[in-house]
Write a structure and sequence with these properties.
Largest sheet of chain A: none
Mean pLDDT of chain B: 92
Structural class of chain B: alpha+beta
Oligomer: heterodimer
Shape of chain B: globular
Number of helices of chain B: 8
Low-confidence stretches of chain B: 428-435
Number of strands of chain A: 0
Number of strands of chain B: 20
Largest sheet of chain B: 8 strands, antiparallel
Strand content of chain B: 25-35%
Helix content of chain B: 10-25%
Mean pLDDT of chain A: 94
Structural class of chain A: mainly alpha
Chain lengths: 99, 435
């Protein structure tokens, strides 16, 4: 049974693929100003977790986090413009399996 | 967070900016009626949305709000003579009426008709609720919206207080503080020592409610309803604080659960991008505020100001009177006045917050929603779609609400309760009974 509701804010405790997929799923069914505000808040939560981690990261992890931050910011601004589907597509770069 | 571009758009309100164009579509508080108390009295300098203006009340009691600088040689009209239904420049005697018409030009030959060609910038004014309001948008007749019908402007004078103080920040910092319900559990908490260590009690929140509210928002005809839901120990009910954010910069603060206190709220009116006037209005729909004693007045009404001005005595230069001993014993901040507590954190951020580097979360949902609403309206206006709320004056007639709802209640349930109890009073107040 599908229990996803765009009216509920996703609990964000990490920036794992599972969490990002969950937000992406919610973006796909978001269709109102309120939904977009909830999704933007979730992406803000992700962004702050990433940014705090980046402050102590080095080497390859730092590079990976920098790329993730850019994508999260892009998705954040797209949902802010009322374009949740475009934001979901932008997040796709973070949730697809690495080849 | 906001991108640097969005932060610039949402905070810049000067002439020709996107947000400035939007704000000019709304009536705004320009000054208090008490500042222009008498006809032909002294003019007042007014800076609003980055424009330098002069306000005056003419012989007939009409209010003028005109560009400060005479169109002739740009002398300040604040120096002018307010006499015989017009403001006369002291440099060469040009005189302007409240509509900006040049009605006398004594330094030109009598046969000159140049004065008929001079149009000085003048803005529409209205007066309601002890406030002089200005409309700085387009004036081609049907584009001018009606004066907003805030409830505090409609009640008798003894049922309201209205005041203003200077704040050294962009308007948005003030507004964001006003719609951020989670800070009241901390910034405005009292402190006391217990055997287990210091304990902090909010002065505004039910003490049994939890300190980490869950937020939701709902777009309404006035702007945004911002809901902060706190769980109660009984598990059967939740405590909801419902804050209306009326576009573009008005709030009403949720009060206690009963109707024992007056309603209070704020407007943060941009002076320019780095400062604003914080207007505070308190009102009770039925009772004179004197009857309510301290529950009738918001702490902002009690902020001491420099004599003859609206500039607070507590400010960044004296760190708002911060008392470190009190901070250890009686107060979370060590700053006495609740309004000073707000101003202290908002002003010390810098005049415009660096939003691209902040770290928001889901507890900042109201802030996120308000910014997006403003940005969307500015964008839509740029595309030729004027904002809707200013067309409906009664949309501004809204109260706040604190309420206990069943624990399974949703934002839609809360909005229904809000509609029934906080905006159902939109009929004209004190209307004559029908026959």
């Amino acid at each position: 049974m599908n229990t996803i509701s765009a009216d509920r804010i996703v609990a964000v405790a990490d920036f794992s693929v599972e969490t990002l997929c969950n937000i992406q799923d919610h973006l796909r069914i978001s269709n109102s100003f309120e939904h977009c505000a909830y999704r933007e808040a979730e992406l803000d939560e992700i962004w702050r977790l990433l940014d705090m981690r980046k402050r102590v990261a080095t080497g390859a992890e730092l590079q990976r986090l920098t790329q993730m931050l850019e994508i999260i910011w892009q998705a954040h601004d797209l949902v802010g413009l009322g374009r949740p589907l475009d934001a979901a597509r932008a997040l796709g770069a973070l949730v697809q399996p690495q080849s | 967070m906001l991108s640097p571009a969005d932060n610039a758009v949402v905070t810049q309100t000067g002439p020709g900016t996107a947000m400035g164009d939007l704000f000019r579509r709304y009536w705004m508080p320009a000054l208090l009626s008490e500042e222009l108390a008498e006809a032909d009295g002294a003019p007042v300098q007014v800076r609003l949305l980055g424009e330098d203006l002069v306000a005056f009340r003419d012989t007939a009691g009409q209010i003028g709000l005109v560009s400060e600088f005479c169109p002739h040689r740009k002398a300040s009209l604040f120096l002018g003579r307010n006499e015989d239904n017009g403001l006369r420049c002291v440099y060469h005697g040009w005189k302007f009426d409240v509509d900006g018409n040049c009605v006398d030009m004594p330094n030109e030959p009598p046969e000159s008709r140049f004065k008929e060609k001079v149009a000085h910038t003048a803005y529409l004014c209205g007066e309601a609720g002890g406030v002089i309001w200005a409309y700085m948008g387009p004036r081609d007749g049907q584009d001018v919206p009606p004066l907003p019908r805030f409830e505090w402007t409609l009640v008798p004078e003894n049922q309201r207080w209205v005041h203003k103080i200077y704040q050294a920040t962009n308007y948005l910092q003030g507004l964001e503080g006003g719609i951020d319900s989670s800070h009241v559990s901390f910034l405005h908490a009292s402190a006391r020592q217990t055997p287990e260590g210091p304990r902090f009690d909010s002065v505004s929140i039910m003490p049994t409610a939890d300190g980490a509210p869950r937020f939701s928002v709902k777009e309404m005809d006035f702007g945004l309803l911002i809901a902060a839901r706190r769980e109660m120990p009984d598990a059967d009910t939740s405590y909801w604080r419902l804050t209306p954010y009326s576009l573009p910069f008005y709030t009403v603060i949720p009060g206690p659960l009963d109707d024992s206190a007056a309603f209070s709220g704020h407007a943060w009116v941009p002076i320019d991008d780095h400062s604003c006037w914080m207007y505070t209005y308190s009102w009770h729909p039925e009772r004179p505020l004197d009857e309510l004693n301290r529950r009738g007045r918001h702490p902002a009404h009690l902020v001491a100001t420099q004599p003859g001005t609206y500039y607070p005595l507590t400010n960044r230069a004296n760190m708002y009177g911060l008392d470190r001993a009190a901070q250890k014993t009686t107060s979370f901040t060590g700053i006495t006045n609740l309004s000073d507590q707000d101003r202290a954190v908002q002003e010390t951020m810098g005049t415009i917050v660096d939003r691209p580097t902040e770290h928001l979360g889901t507890s900042d949902l109201g802030v996120i929603g308000a910014r997006r609403l403003l940005l969307r309206q500015a964008r839509e206006l740029g595309q030729g779609q004027p904002p809707q709320p200013p067309r409906d004056a009664s949309a501004f007639q809204v109260r706040s609400l604190s309420v206990l709802l069943p624990s399974e209640a949703t934002i839609d349930d809360a909005a229904t309760e809000f509609a029934a109890r906080a905006i159902a009073q939109r009929q004209p107040l004190h209307a004559a009974p029908s026959a």
